[in-house]
């Protein structure tokens, strides 16, 4: 009788573990996607803040920076394949004028930024570091910053 009770207990534990694993397997993709969506939204807000500080955009580079298309398809933006986070911001030679928003520092996966041949002005905040072209620097040593004075 004791072995039957022990066997029954193991069976119940195995069934419970199986049910929990199914539940976790079902919820895991949603949990991961929630993390990715949160990061994606953070990048979107940072880019919209950058856009809001640009007062002259003669080629309409940022005109489609809105909800009409995914941000990874926005002009001048490149995203990583795995996490779909902004890894490159290339607005070079667009004749943009304005201040560079400190929210650029919120693009935590950013590895390359090129703002050459534009007219950004104002204080360069601690989130942004002025470096020579292609020289890794900034908060993330893997980020290559390119800036030129207007």
Structure commentary:
- With 150 residues, this protein is of the alpha/beta class.
- 34% of the residues lie in helices and 15% in strands.
- It is built from one helix and seven strands.
- The protein has one helix spanning 2-52; strands spanning 54-56, 77-79, 86-90, 97-99, 112-114, 119-121, 144-146.
- A four-stranded mixed sheet has the order 2-3-5-7, with no helix packed on it.
- It is rod-shaped, with a radius of gyration of 24 Å.
- The N and C termini lie far apart (87 Å).
Structural class comes to alpha/beta
Number of E-state strands: 7
The helix content, as a percent range, equals: 25-40%
Choose one word for the global shape: rod-shaped
Q: Sheet with the most strands?
A: 4 strands, mixed
Assembly type of the chains comes to single chain
List the helices and strands in order. HEEEEEEE
Poorly predicted regions are: 30-36, 135-150
Q: Given the structure, what is the number of helices?
A: 1
> What is the end-to-end distance?
87 Å
Provide mean pLDDT, rounded. 74
Q: What's the gyration radius in Å?
A: 24 Å
Biggest sheet, spatial arrangement of strands: 2-3-5-7
Fraction in beta strands: 15-25%
């Amino acid at each position: 009788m004791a072995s039957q009770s022990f066997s029954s207990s193991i069976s119940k534990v195995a069934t419970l573990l199986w049910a929990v694993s199914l539940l976790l397997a079902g919820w895991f993709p949603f949990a991961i996607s929630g993390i990715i969506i949160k990061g994606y939204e953070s990048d979107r807000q940072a880019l919209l803040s950058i856009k809001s500080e640009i007062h002259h955009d003669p080629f309409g580079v940022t005109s489609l920076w809105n909800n009409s298309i995914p941000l990874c398809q926005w002009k001048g933006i490149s995203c990583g394949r795995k996490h779909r986070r902004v890894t490159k911001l290339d607005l070079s030679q667009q004749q943009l004028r304005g201040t560079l928003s400190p929210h650029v520092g919120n693009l935590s996966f950013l590895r390359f930024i090129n703002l050459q041949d534009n007219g950004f002005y104002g204080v360069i905040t601690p989130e942004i570091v002025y470096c020579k072209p292609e020289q890794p620097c900034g908060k993330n040593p893997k980020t290559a910053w390119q800036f030129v004075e207007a």
